[in-house]
């Protein structure tokens, strides 16, 4: 039986074909890295270094062009968390809108919220601004649950020494 990754690659291949692009071995290697790191938010350089492990002869420009093509075809989304680095994020299949991000200001971890949760907000915007929403980017900046625990412990420790 084909793995879900192979099936996904097959679908991406079709998407490229429908726009008259080929899934060349280099492009496929790039797509595989993105699929293998689906939860991560890799920069072009990160993707390049990972593709290079399997394709030592590949150049950064090739990887970069592939990422731009995948962005154009809406297979990936280009995002920026305010650190000036463009990151590439695979779009979830079948999701009408882009997922949300929780960026931890303590450890830098990025968590994803797949549920849209914006139904009511979108209704108000569409009605009051007569604006048809196609998509959105939402990034929350705060302290993640991992650091939150640490923070509380630190506080407790300090209290104990006071
Ligand atoms: Zn994401
Ligand atoms: Zn939405
Ligand atoms: Zn954190």
TrEMBL record:
Annotated residues for binding of Fe cation: 136
Cofactor(s) required for function per UniProt: Zn(2+); Mn(2+); Fe(2+)
Alphabetized InterPro entries for the sequence: FUR, Fur_C, WH-like_DNA-bd_sf, WH_DNA-bd_sf
A GO BP entry: negative regulation of DNA-templated transcription
SUPFAM superfamilies noted in UniProt: Winged helix' DNA-binding domain
Residue ranges that the Swiss-Prot or TrEMBL entry lists as coiled coil: none
Keywords tagged on the record: DNA-binding, Iron, Metal-binding, Repressor, Transcription, Transcription regulation, Zinc
Gene3D superfamilies documented for this protein: 3.30.1490.190, Winged helix-like DNA-binding domain superfamily/Winged helix DNA-binding domain
Cofactor note: Binds 1 zinc ion per subunit. Binds 1 Mn(2+) or Fe(2+) ion per subunit.
Keyword Protein transport: no
Short name of one Pfam family: FUR
UniProt binding sites for Zn(2+): 104, 107, 144, 147
Superkingdom per UniProt: Bacteria
GO MF terms, alphabetically ordered: DNA-binding transcription factor activity; transcription cis-regulatory region binding; zinc ion binding
Family designation: Belongs to the Fur family.
Name of the protein this chain belongs to: Fur family transcriptional regulator Fur
Organism the protein comes from: Schinkia azotoformans LMG 9581
């Amino acid at each position: 039986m084909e793995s879900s990754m192979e099936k996904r690659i097959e679908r991406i291949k079709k998407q490229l074909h429908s726009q008259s692009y080929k899934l060349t071995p280099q492009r496929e290697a790039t797509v595989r890295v993105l699929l293998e790191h689906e939860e991560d938010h890799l920069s072009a350089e990160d993707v390049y270094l990972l593709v290079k492990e399997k394709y030592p002869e590949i150049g950064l420009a090739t990887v970069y062009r592939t990422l731009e093509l995948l962005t154009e075809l809406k297979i990936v989304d280009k995002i920026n968390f305010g650190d000036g680095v463009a990151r590439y994020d695979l779009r979830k299949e079948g999701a009408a809108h882009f997922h949300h991000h929780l960026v931890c200001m303590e450890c830098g971890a990025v968590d994803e919220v797949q549920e849209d949760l914006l139904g009511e907000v979108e209704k108000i915007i569409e009605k009051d601004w007569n604006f048809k929403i196609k998509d959105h980017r939402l990034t929350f900046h705060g302290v993640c649950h991992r650091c939150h625990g640490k923070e509380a412990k630190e506080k407790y420790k300090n209290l104990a020494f006071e």
